[in-house]
């Protein structure tokens, strides 16, 4: 006999009352999202039946709906041992219409394209493949979900209010002392009972034993009070306690060190002032000032560097290029899954060079996987299709397809056919212009183009005739005779290269590296080498200036050591220091190295291309990152950083209600060896909501054009390694001076909506 008892059945009036209550809760949460009365929100709250698809034979009807909190999606589960399933809107990375996932392409017919959509999640959670009853219904689901996702991401300022609602256990819009304590834990603040009672009594002006209405507003104002902002505001607000346009201009000139004008001050007041009377009077209230500091104009990243601002008409090899290694892998290098989704994720992060490890497939179709391992396989054709669809969604600049070719001649021909037929005119099949090139075209000239990197049978100005079976073809001084192929030495094995594949390798012909002098005397500009990390680091240590000059004429690709079976990464900074363009990393692995990569490519429109400094492009340069000899690269500066405070740091252990973080902040400089440094604050006990440090650091900088600044917030632990709370990285040359807010990202590089650091920054030229 079961010991479980069903709850007593509600009466009809109780059921109606509950439904009305839940309707009001949903309305209130919709209002919070700015979607009050929105038809798409109502559609999600009502829900509907969709077909969940896992295989050709596993296709089950499931009911999906948005819960009344407007941030959790619920769906039923028919498994008797499982509860109904939920996931939060915040878990969703993207929603894609059509048969975009591998599962839908494999398990549904092409005529179902309009009915299908997929929900892709952050991290490694499997995507959810769904099918609606009609194309219109599928579009409605996608549109509604995208709307609520976007509104949730714009909800930063309402985070505290949302936590208040969570703490209001009985949803009576009142907060008793017990709920107040729960709320403080929700927002990551540990307080003793005496202090909690003190706040409560101060706000409970009605002496009712609970806070409601204006009392909760008072409590909210006390809680969100920013003492450090008050001090700054009072220092400059000289117009009867308000900040006039003149006061704001003084602040911009003296603190923010901006070349501001009165018009700039007026623009900021119009843009950020929340009080209409303040706008009319050309004044900025404290709330407007806080709003300014929390948006792009008050951010650490120079807003002028957010769009593409660099000269994009230089030769391709004059740029750092965001690059991925073994792009097809979702996890490790030995037994992890291969997937088109890995390419999509890399491209959506503006990766501009992806790798395709190509092998013969059993069905006659080439496949991509990590050879001689247990990693799964994905069809080459499917990968090319996914690349075509997502290559230029976040950046218009060219994408390099780096081919690691292990296929037979017949399947190489198929590879060439698929790339030509699928990529169409976007595939570069001949040099630009009407004459034989002597240098790379620019990213601007190559917009929207795909460039193939791989082996080639001949020089660009030579021809290989299919009719001439005795044609001699040279490769690094070696001769071979073949109708359509050449014998090449590849990892101690012999392989043949199909002419059709060879012909579409234009600006990135792969050749073996025999030394910098040999490359200078024998290689054309488009002939490039790949270096495993140990070789590249050795060359950077022993021949840095020669390496830099090599990269002034040619492209270099660096890739991780084969021993990194867990898909870990090497430090990319020393490779950028010697001008290497294609510094390939394992994009699937969240790590410090990927944070640096994200920081390097953060400015210039996050387009995947960043112009190298002049001293890495000028033939007369004698720059050596390991030496501080005088030159245009040596611009000695002192970087002053005051870590003031943090706001709304997330709880790391959400399962433990009383778990509060003990945060500390570390500031790191990554650049030439002389610039590398790291300094950190003390930790603060039990306060993730509004910890304050007011600690000053200074860093001596010698080559600012190569320096990256990384902010790291950790949860201090005396007995084990600290846990990462959040991080942010950007080039020193893109840092704004003065009082700035620093957004925080997760380990995977996603924005933590409510969290941030408040700092003061100054960069002073050394005498």
TrEMBL record:
Ca(2+) 5 binds at residues 715-717. GO terms for molecular function: calcium ion binding; phosphatidylinositol-4,5-bisphosphate phospholipase C activity. Transmembrane segments: none annotated. SUPFAM superfamilies: C2 domain (Calcium/lipid-binding domain, CaLB), EF-hand, PH domain-like, PLC-like phosphodiesterases. Residues 43-150 form the PH domain. The active site is at 325, 370. CDD domains: C2_PLC_like, EFh_PI-PLCdelta1, PH_PLC_delta, PI-PLCc_delta. One of its GO terms (biological process) is intracellular signal transduction. Its cofactor is Ca(2+). SMART domains: C2, EFh, PH, PLCXc, PLCYc. InterPro entries: C2_dom, C2_domain_sf, EF-hand-dom_pair, EF_Hand_1_Ca_BS, EF_hand_dom, PH-like_dom_sf, PH_domain, PI-PLC_fam. It is an enzyme of class 3 (hydrolase). Glycans are attached at residue 206. Residues 155-190, 191-226 form the EF-hand domain. Ca(2+) 4 binds at residues 660, 662, 686. Binds 3 Ca(2+) ions per subunit. Two of the Ca(2+) ions are bound to the C2 domain. Its EC number is 3.1.4.11. It holds the Pfam family C2. It is found in: Cytoplasm; Membrane. It is a peripheral membrane protein. Substrate binds at residues 52-79, 453, 455, 530, 557. Residues 617-746 form the C2 domain. Ca(2+) 3 binds at residues 326, 355, 357, 404. The keyword Protein biosynthesis does not apply. This is Phosphoinositide phospholipase C. It comes from Salarias fasciatus.
